[in-house]
Design brief:
By secondary structure, the protein is of the alpha/beta class.
Length: about 190
């Protein structure tokens, strides 16, 4: 299975990406589980400057709002895992039941999606609005998690990838075909290795 995190930075293109993945899911022999970012909804929560405990749960609920927006009329959205070929996971219920990650702004939808990929033994793709990890103006094709520059992901994700010995492909979701290509092993972006 593939876990594809659709970043909030793709708010304007996100629904087009979901539709593309649905239309092209037959090209991939594995199931596709979509995880929403928090986007403008989480940005609003951050602007409230609440305590970390409250912010954590509100930001996960923000992911659900973005998830409903992304999936509406295109793919089903569920609060638990299913056997569907492609669907979107609404993470609040699962996160409440398991509560696996620190309650801090160091943990965002990046780390939540990675945790879901780890839990399901899935390959992890992070679709965002940039071409990959960029250092000195150029896309780095491959980089170790320990070498990621600050701000390339949330602060917790590099530690999580190293601990779980997981990789993460970072691709530009404005070009939906790049997500499918990453599933086929052709990463037009950056591969983050543990």
């Amino acid at each position: 299975m593939f876990v594809v995190k659709i970043g909030g930075s793709l708010f304007r293109e996100g629904r087009r990406l979901v539709k593309y993945l649905k239309d092209h899911s037959k090209e991939v022999n594995e199931r596709i589980l979509l995880v929403p970012g928090g986007g403008i909804f989480a940005d609003f929560v951050r602007s409230l400057e609440l305590d970390e405990e409250t912010s954590h749960w509100m930001a996960i609920l923000a992911m659900e709002q973005y998830g409903y927006y992304l999936s509406s009329g295109i793919v089903p959205a569920y609060p638990e895992f299913t056997e569907e070929k492609i669907y979107l996971l609404l993470p609040y219920k699962l996160m409440r039941e398991r509560d696996p990650l620190p309650h801090s702004w160091d943990v965002t939808s990046d780390s939540i999606a990675a945790w879901i990929a780890s839990l399901t033994s899935s390959k992890f793709i992070r679709a965002t609005n940039v071409d990959g990890v960029i250092i000195n103006g150029r896309v780095i094709p491959q980089i170790k998690a320990s070498e990621l520059p600050k701000g390339a992901t949330d602060n917790f994700l590099p530690k999580f990838l190293m601990k779980e010995k997981m990789s993460c492909a970072v691709v530009n979701g404005r070009f939906p075909e790049r997500v499918i290509e990453a599933m086929k092993g052709n990463i037009i972006g950056t591969l983050i290795t543990p």
